[in-house]
Amino acid sequence: MIDTKRLTLRPATVDDASFYLRLVNEPSFLENIGDKGVRDLDGARAALLAGPIAMQAQLGYSLWMVVRKEDGAAIGMCGLIKRDTLPDTDIGYAYLPAFWGQGYAWEAASAALEYGRDVVKLPRLLGIVSPDNAPSSALLKKLGMHFVERFATGKTDLYRMEFPPRHN
Asked: Which of 15, 41, 145, 168 has the fewest CB atoms within 10 Å, i.e. is most exposed?
């Protein structure tokens, strides 16, 4: 669906359940994003169907699988998410630790941001992150987002980017 120099971002399918199960149970995912309660393949399939697969069908965007072109390895997920708890769409991402520090998160997030701006025509994009997750905060800033507020719970920072109005 979206190709970058080294990556393909594509919609998730139920065939991605084993990868999703592994990703959402990584200690870093649990610490920085939270426990999704997915403990087996059936739970992973159900979570994919109710989450990214349903959102893709409804909105034309979602959290996508990030696949490395050189070997076809699934390395993470990145995309656009419309949450009931936020006023606008946000960008989300998570990668297996073996693929951190190689520029993949920046490459995929940049492509997702461009898709949101240019294809979906979003007026703005949000980013949410744990205040203790410095690398994720740095990525949001590198994408051009600006800190807005820390939610009252103190567990989440909100970032925002406004896209310039388009004139046809």
From this structure: 168
